[in-house]
Amino acid sequence: MFDPTSRYANVGDARYTTADGQTIVYKKRRFAPPAASLPLLTLAVVAQRDRLDLIAYRTLGRAELSWRIADANDALDPFDLQVTGRVLRVPRPVP
């Protein structure tokens, strides 16, 4: 259901059975790893009008990996990271 690079690719499924017997399958909650546990690839300085997807594309080669940068900086809201001049940790990609 999810792309292999998605943050939810390795999150397991859970099932809930309603009172009338219907089973609903859903994704379990994903817990982000501690930022300090992610190996560092590089540091990136946020430029004016920069976005996290642009930084991910420049540093990791894929814009959709921006969630990895958010994880490496303990950010739940990626917009918190888009502050001009802020230095962001960019984690090394996991094989």
Structure, explained:
- The chain is of the alpha+beta class and 95 residues long.
- It is 17% helix and 22% strand.
- It is built from 2 helices and 4 strands.
- It has helices at 52-60, 66-72, and strands spanning 13-17, 23-27, 40-45, 87-91.
- It has a two-stranded antiparallel sheet with strand order 1-2.
- Strand 1 and strand 2 form a beta hairpin.
- Helix 1 packs across helix 2.
- The two termini are 20 Å apart.
- The mean pLDDT is 93.
Q: Note poorly predicted spans.
A: none
Order of secondary-structure elements: EEEHHE
Q: List how many beta strands DSSP finds.
A: 4
- The tally of helices reads 2
For the report, how would you describe the main beta sheet? 2 strands, antiparallel
Shape type: elongated
Computed Rg: 16 Å
Mean of residue pLDDT values: 93
Helicity level: 10-25%
State which percent range the strand residues make up: 15-25%
Widest sheet, order of strands: 1-2
- First-to-last CA distance: 20 Å
* Helix and strand composition category: alpha+beta
Describe the structure using short key phrases.
two-stranded antiparallel ribbon; elongated; about 15% helix; 4 strands; 2 helices; alpha+beta; about 100 residues; single chain
Short note summarizing the structure:
The chain is 17% helix and 22% strand. It has helices at 52-60, 66-72; strands at 13-17, 23-27, 40-45, 87-91.
Strand and helix map with partners:
Elements: E1 13-17, E2 23-27, E3 40-45, H1 52-60, H2 66-72, E4 87-91
Antiparallel strand pairs: 1-2, 3-4
Helix pairs in contact: 1-2
